[in-house]
Write a structure and sequence with these properties.
Strand order of the largest sheet: 3-2-1-4-5-7-6
CATH superfamily: Vaccinia Virus protein VP39
Distance between the termini: 33 Å
Strand content: 15-25%
CATH topology: Rossmann fold
Shape: globular
Organism: Luteolibacter yonseiensis
Order of helices and strands: HEHEHHEHEHEHEE
CATH class: Alpha Beta
Number of strands: 7
Mean pLDDT: 93
InterPro entries: PABS, SAM-dependent_MTases_sf
CATH architecture: 3-Layer(aba) Sandwich
Low-confidence stretches: none
Pfam families: Spermine_synth
Family: Belongs to the spermidine/spermine synthase family.
Number of helices: 7
Bound molecules: S-adenosylmethionine
Largest sheet: 7 strands, mixed
Protein name: Spermine synthase
Length: 186
């Protein structure tokens, strides 16, 4: 993570918020430096609810104490609900409180390193669970540091429409180094 390379995180927010209803329910995992959260808040209305799952308490503390100058007081926004939890637990436990969009930027992509158990987010049963946590017409986006044909195929097995969108790390970057996997539920 870097405070100077946030383009792909912001692009992820823009792709996820393109067609949201006024009372949108959004889930972001994880918080990181809050670039995705900041852009989501800019693109959603006052009645949106934005759940943010962050595994590491220290990341939430850094955002509150040190990142005001970078990202403002995002965590004080009344639309934001911070959960110091594994994002998979929120997805698995959401019941009928489903989401219009889910933004997953927790690892380098389908090769988890923060914790081994993150693998479940990229495997077929986890993908199916994510789909069930979306409202009809909902969208999930996975951030990845690289393309991955096999992961795209797994998504295509569950979702109506899947796109692998190249993304830049920063606006003037010459190359598209990251990939955003965008999947829409019927
Ligand atoms: C690359 S950063 C996210 C960057 C973020 N999109 C931004 O705009 O700054 C990844 C974050 O996900 C968190 N994380 C990793 N695994 C997680 C999980 N299973 N649930 C919730 N957060 C997780 C990490 O602690 C880290 O803060």
């Amino acid at each position: 993570m870097s405070t100077t390379a946030s383009s792909s995180e912001e692009q992820m927010a823009e792709l996820s918020c393109a067609n949201l209803p006024a009372q949108a329910r959004v889930l972001i995992g994880g918080l990181g430096f809050g670039f995705t959260l900041k852009r989501v808040l800019a693109l959603t209305g006052p009645d949106a609810v934005v759940d943010v799952a962050e595994l590491l308490p220290v990341i939430v503390e850094w955002n509150r104490e040190f990142l005001h100058e970078v990202n403002g007081q995002l965590l004080d926004d009344p639309r934001v609900r911070i959960h110091v939890r594994d994002v998979y637990e929120l997805i698995d436990g959401c019941g009928n409180e489903r989401y219009d969009t889910i933004l997953l930027d927790v690892d380098n992509g389908p090769d988890p390193f923060v914790q081994d158990v993150n693998e479940r987010l990229y495997q077929k049963p986890g993908i199916e669970r994510i789909k069930q946590a979306l409202r009809p017409g909902g969208r999930v986006i996975f951030w990845s540091a690289h393309p991955d044909k096999s992961f795209a195929k797994s998504l295509q097995g569950a979702f109506r429409n899947v796109e692998c969108i190249p993304a830049k790390a920063y606006p003037k970057a010459k190359r598209f180094t990251h990939t955003l996997f965008v999947a829409d539920r019927t």
